[in-house]
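User: I'm putting together notes for a lab meeting next week and I want to include a structural view of one of the chains we've been expressing. I don't have a solved structure, so I'd like a prediction I can at least talk through. The sequence is below, exactly as it appears in our construct file.
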Amino acid sequence: MRYLKTFENLNYFSSGVNEIETFIKNNLAYILDEGFTYKVNFKFYGGRMNRKTKELLPLEYYIVKIDKIEQKGNNRRQLFFKWENIKDDFIPFLELLNENYTLDSYSPEDNSLVIDSGDTLVFTPSREWIGNRKRWYNIEELINDSIDDDDKFQFISFVITGEK
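Assistant: Thanks for the context. Below is the predicted structure for the 164-residue chain, given as structure tokens.
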């Protein structure tokens, strides 16, 4: 009997992952056809301190990561991609995501930042590569398309904490 609760929770967790995967497949079909992939992971922690109320809250969330993969034979590698190339498909996806799900941040910079782009390639004005920088965007920046079209992303990742 003590394991019955564990199996009930397993159904809840897997149905949440399946729901999010279906949402991604339905709303990002074009870029998935172009070699993008996604991964949804469920995480559960016994508690987290609410910054505003200072109370301990249980924490269940889904981490979603979307990236572009190139496969040659048995070798797979992650490709950088430009915001300009995906924004027409990704902006409507983010609008629907924001309407249907509660997003949270895991950015070390600011609680309002919810989208992690991995390492962004940084170039000089003459297009010489000078390094990488870690960048987090808030969802409004991406929805409003207020970032540089030439920004290259390693991946796009966000945290879903529940449905609205």
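A couple of points you could mention at the meeting. The CA atoms of residues 7 and 116 lie 32 Å apart. Residues 4-163 form one domain.

User: Perfect, that's what I needed.
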